[in-house]
Write the structure tokens for this entry.
Amino acid sequence: MKTYMPTKDDKFTFGLWTVGNRGRDPFGDAVRPALSPIDAVKRLSALGAYGVNFHDDDLAPIDATPTERARLIREFKTALSDYGLCAPMATTNLFYDPVFRDGAFTANDASVRAYALQKAMKAMDLGVEVGAQIYVFWGGREGAEVDAGKDAVTAVKRFRDALNFLCEYSRDQGYDYRFALEAKPNEPRGDLYFPTTGSYLGFIATLDHKEMVGVNPEVGHEQMIGLNFYHVVAQAIEAGKLFHIDLNDQKFLRFDQDLRFGAESIKTLFFLVKLLEESGYSGPRHFDAHCYRTEDAEGVWDFAAGCMRTYLIFKEKARRFNEDPEIQSLLSEISAGDPAVADCSGPYSRARAQMLRGVAFDRAALARKRLPYERLDQLTIELLLGVR
């Protein structure tokens, strides 16, 4: 009987802001007490997590004195060591403080843009201090409600300038960061400038050091606008740009819900886990979610354990999918083709083009070929429901 208990080898991570979420929303105040970073480390270690990620302000309040900041960071580093956790990813909070109400890197005010760069550099320094190697940028305020007030072309250029600057800063300091860009279509701004992972993949190609920059797709952010997250991640993997990933769940076309992993999208997330486990992705499996507002402080740990357990269940289901003889037989049938034209596929050559021009395809036979997707999908559902 499998227990689906996580180990450090699973590389499951949580953000301090996830288990520390107090249940506050736009219509209601906090329902849970504050959770210290030290207590978060202790409890996550006991559950079998691999690491804890953080924003700069999660560790030290934005107005902390240098002495307070040093103490808080020292205590956090000690806790990581004592409880066997790491901090593989760090990020900067460039969205909460009122100074960023019109954006950070894309703000109209040059002083705000300069302050955002300063804050990001200091946060990068902090990340290196605790061992982070991945740095995520989520442009939570990089957008607009009033298009007359900000030129969108200029905003994209400003964001590029900021990323180029910070890549150079990382290189100059001798840091080994890989930057990961996180997309979202809207919320908290009416529109955000990089709404999808695909838009970031296009943007990365324009950077001075594109080899340093990849993406950090999040389940909920893509499902907010109805995209298939499995396909999103597949494109990032194929491009060699999946540097980090945020796992949660989301009802399609809703506000950003950050639900427990697997709470809604069972089939999509099964194929996501299968993809991650079979693609060679070796980075953290980061849960960027939080428990229901109805939960008390203890319910937070039911939520965290549930995220990890569901991932491991999907991982086991992926193994069974690959070993199921009927499923694999159907996949072979669907993929079967005429071996005589196998050489027609591949990189272009003049000889291959001439060969392809000379093939006499039987369109009617190709159109009649059986494609048993109904049966394949039914078997997948039965496997996920535990009756196969």
